[in-house]
Structures are given as structure tokens and as C-alpha cells.
Amino acid sequence: MHTEYGMILGLLHQFVGWLLYPVILVLALAVIGVLWELGLAFAERYYILKAFIQAAHSTATSTKTLKISHTEIEQEFQSHATKRLERIDLFARSGPILGLMGTLIPLGPGLTALGSGNIDILATALTVAFDTTVVGLLVGLVAYTIGRIRRRWYDQTWQKITSVSSANNLAEASTQE
After folding, report:
1. CA separation for the pair 124, 11 (Å, rounded)
2. What's the predicted TM-score (pTM) here?
3. Residues 141-172: tens digit of each pLDDT
């Protein structure tokens, strides 16, 4: 029974050790993804959100010659905002988790090395642990900030789109009377 327990712990330790490089790789991909989202946020602010507002104004001033309705613009905007917010929220939550995993995984071998007096392995393990923590927290912080700013932009854009829709509905009601 005791040897089975030792074998299970050995397998668990081996499995966790195998996770270090995939965690570092995913953390690096998360950094790239957050930088990509930062670029998209600038494009959204100066082009995409303005295009939604212009499309809403176009449907309000057209004489039903456009093939897209105001409701379709609202639905498209909601879909766009939901997709972007879900993705940035995933980065905001997963960055710190990956950083914590990158912290804890090398600490096991580092503490083992400390027990056997090998300070070089301990120093390497601690460096990896602290570096992954900082990178994970940075990913989370930048993603959280982008998410908060996007939410504000989306709220403002939604208010403009719906105000155009409300004004259009009022104008149609007054012409029908």
C-alpha cells in the first residue's frame, strides 16, 4: 500500500512537472493575445464603433432603400460587443491563473533542490516562478483595463444607437398621425 502511495505521488509530480512548459507557452500566447486586443481596442474606438453609429444614422435617415434595418444593426452591435467582452474577460481571468500555475510548478523541484543543497536549481526555479507571476498579473491587469474601457465605450455607443432608434420611431409615429 505504501509503495502504491509513493508511485501515485511520483506520477502526480511527473504530470505537474510536464505542465510547466505548456503553461509558459500559453502565458506567452496570452501576452500576444492581450497585445492584439489592445490594438483591436484602438481600432474599435476610432473606426468600428463610429461605423455602428453611422450605420444607425443611415438607417434612420434613409427612405427604406437600405437592406439592413435598425434592429439588425442593434443585434449586430450586441453580438460584436458580447464577443469582444467575453474574449477580453477570458484573458483577464486566465492570466493570473496561468501566472500562479507558473509559480507553483517550479517551486516543487526548487524546494527539493534546496533540501539537497543545490542552490543553482533553486535560483532557477524561483526566477521562473516570479517571472511567470509577474507576466500573468500583467496580462490580467491589461486585459481587465481593456475590458472596463470597452464596456464604457459600448455603453456610450449603445446609447447613441438606441437614441437614433427612438428618434426614428418618434418621427415615424408623428408622420402617421
Report:
1. 23
2. 0.83
3. 999 999 999 999 999 999 999 888 766 555 55
- Output the 3-class SS for 20-37: HHHHHHHHHHHHHHHHHH
Reduced 3-state DSSP string for the chain: CHHHHHHHHHHHHHHHHHHHHHHHHHHHHHHHHHHHHHHHHHHHHHHHHHHHHHHHHHHHHCCCCCCCCHHHHHHHHHHHHHHHHHHHHHHHHHHHHHHHHHHHHHHHHHHHHHHCCCHHHHHHHHHHHHHHHHHHHHHHHHHHHHHHHHHHHHHHHHHHHHHHHHHHHHHHHHHHC
The predicted pLDDT at position 85 comes to: 97
Amino acid at 150: R
Of 129, 127, 126, 125, the residue nearest 137 (C-alpha): 129
What cell was used for 12?
Answer: 502526480
Distance in angstroms (rounded) separating the CA atoms of residues 12 and 24: 19
Residues comprising the chain, all counted: 177
